[in-house]
Amino acid sequence: MTGKAGEAGRLLAISDLHIGYSENRALVERMAPERDDDWLLVAGDVAETVADIRWALKTLAGRFRKVVWVPGNHELWTHPRDTVTLRGVARYEHLVELCRELGVTTPEDPYPVWDGPGGPVAVAPLFLLYDYSFLPAGCATKDEGLAYAHGTGVVCSDEFLLHPDPYPSREAWCAARVAETERRLAALPGDLSTVLVNHYPLHRH
């Protein structure tokens, strides 16, 4: 598809590209805006390796007027296939710097304002993680929830690959991220609406 000059751009969103799968990589290779001013919000889980993340975001940033990225859990994995062995905060900061090199907006950058149809709105990329409060029915604690998961034989790979360093736990990292994000959102003008971009569910439903 080619851009349509003169037409109002759109605010588009996608997540879970998972380009480690060849079929998904082929889809990204074909993705293009329909209008010159289209923005693309990429809400996490692009890939597991830094090389794949770079390729996907560079490809998209070269086509859309603006690309906004937030990390999912897969980007934060220290995966045995990845030549980049950074963990936790250091890995996240490495990805932020990669995005800045590519001109991609991250949760650490000023919130851009969309002035197209439906605007103005502040587009707020969020990196919040999770705190294990969405537990299976009948479980009251994280340990009970993990025991339930082990009992089913289905345990999230985060438990083995998503390291919170230097925080003592993923929920501690989450608490720090939520506090900082609350501060930044509170500083926005009261009459400016927001579009919140986040990989992790904000509501249990």
Tell me what the structure shows.
Helix 2 (50-61) packs parallel to helix 4 (88-102). 26% of the residues are buried. The strands form two sheets. The chain has a three-stranded parallel beta sheet, with helices on one face. A three-stranded mixed beta sheet has the order 4-5-6, with no helix packed on it. The chain is built from seven helices and six strands, in the order E-H-E-H-E-H-H-E-E-H-H-H-E. Strand 1 (11-14), helix 1 and strand 2 (39-42) form a beta-alpha-beta unit. The two termini are 35 Å apart. With 205 residues, it is an alpha/beta fold. The chain has a single domain (11-197), classed as Purple Acid Phosphatase, chain A, domain 2.
Question: What is the CATH level 1 assignment?
Answer: Alpha Beta
- What's the architecture in CATH terms? 4-Layer Sandwich
Tell me the helix content.
25-40%
Which strand order do you get reading across the main beta sheet?
1-2-3
- Count the beta strands: 6
**Count of all domains:** 1
Percent range for β-strand residues: 5-15%
Radius of gyration: 18 Å
Q: Indicate the structural class.
A: alpha/beta
Enumerate how many helices there are, as a single number.
Answer: 7
The main sheet comes to: 3 strands, parallel
Shape from CA axes?
globular
- CATH topology-level name: Purple Acid Phosphatase, chain A, domain 2
Secondary-structure element order, N to C: EHEHEHHEEHHHE
Helices and strands, with pairings:
Elements: E1 11-14, H1 22-30, E2 39-42, H2 50-61, E3 66-69, H3 73-76, H4 88-102, E4 113-114, E5 121-125, H5 142-152, H6 158-161, H7 170-186, E6 193-197
Parallel strand pairs: 1-2, 2-3, 5-6
Antiparallel strand pairs: 4-5
Helix pairs in contact: 2-4
